[in-house]
Specification:
By secondary structure, the protein is α/β, with parallel strands linked by helices. It is built from eight helices and five strands. The chain is globular and about 50 Å long. The structure holds thymidine-5'-diphosphate. Thymidine-5'-diphosphate (TYD) binds next to helix 4.
């Protein structure tokens, strides 16, 4: 089972998923927790290039291709082998982030990004995608309040960009209702974590 976690910065997705993973492991499930961009040494190197705040000259298509390249490497080295061994892979961000950020917010078009990613992923779609939905104003305020988290090149985009990201994520949830579950991330931490575990369990036990 391949589960992906999507949503804006500051949606609390990482904390909620950490809590859910601990519970699932206690129940005896074998989980591989990973993230994009990155997750393997080569993919992490690509991540550093993409997110470097000094790379202000990066072209939008270059950015989209680098995310796809990092995704490919991560699939080959980590995700596919783990799925083959029957493990549950839970990945922070995947294809839908490219569709929302590069396709929607950057305006490159969902279909263009899908075709680049089709080449990169050979059609590997998640079985379940949790979308942590949150107003961008709230997400950005949470990041500003959380001094532990480093601000990256994408965080520095204007509010309008983050609104488009959210809109596109919600469109994707409608386009792929069989794999998307939307979680209201404006609720308190405990509620969000509880819901996250519930949704994962109901899909795993299906
Ligand atoms: P990260 O620090 O991992 O963000 P977060 O903690 O919010 O998950 O940085 C990843 C950034 O890259 C984030 O701003 C979203 C963006 N992104 C894309 O634009 N396209 C993609 O395909 C992926 C995977 C991430």
């Amino acid at each position: 089972m391949f589960i992906t976690i999507e949503g804006p910065e500051g949606s609390g997705k990482t904390t909620a998923v950490d809590t859910a993973v601990k519970e699932l492991e206690k129940m005896g499930y074998q989980i591989v927790r990973t993230r994009e961009p990155g997750g393997t040494p080569i993919a992490e190197q690509i991540r550093n290039v993409i997110l470097d705040k000094n790379n202000t000259a990066m072209d939008q298509r270059t950015e989209a291709l680098l995310y796809a390249a990092s995704r490919r490497q991560h699939l080959v080295e980590k995700v596919w082998p783990a799925l083959k061994e029957g493990k549950i892979v839970i990945c922070d961000r995947y294809l839908d982030s490219s569709l929302a950020y590069q396709g929607g917010a950057r305006g490159l078009g969902i279909d263009n990004i899908l075709s680049v990613n089709n080449f990169a992923t050979e059609g590997t779609f998640p079985d379940l995608t949790l979308l942590f939905d949150l107003q961008p104003e709230l997400g950005l305020a949470r990041i500003a309040a959380n001094s532990n988290r480093e601000v990256n090149r994408l965080d520095l985009e204007k509010l309008d960009f983050h609104r488009k990201v959210r809109e596109t994520f919600l469109e994707l949830a409608k386009r792929y209702p069989e794999r998307f579950v939307v979680i209201d991330a404006s609720q308190n931490r405990e509620e969000v974590a509880k819901k996250t575990l519930e949704v994962m369990l109901s899909r795993i036990c299906k």
